[in-house]
Write a structure and sequence with these properties.
The protein has 50 residues and is mainly alpha-helical. It is built from 1 helix and no strands. The relative contact order is 0.07.
């Protein structure tokens, strides 16, 4: 019988690392977009107040 335990553990660790990286990358992208939108809004508010 084939022993899949080592390969399965490696695959699970790889999946967790890849998923963690993907979540980290997407959260950074979303945060940068939120900052960009807030900067645009603040510039527009400053122009409207003048």
């Amino acid at each position: 019988m084939v022993d899949w335990s080592n390969e399965l553990i490696f695959l699970l660790i790889f999946d967790v690392v890849a998923l963690s990286f993907a979540v980290w990358w997407l959260s950074r992208r979303v945060q940068s977009k939120i900052v960009e939108v807030n900067e645009r809004k603040s510039k527009r508010w400053i122009r409207e107040e003048e």
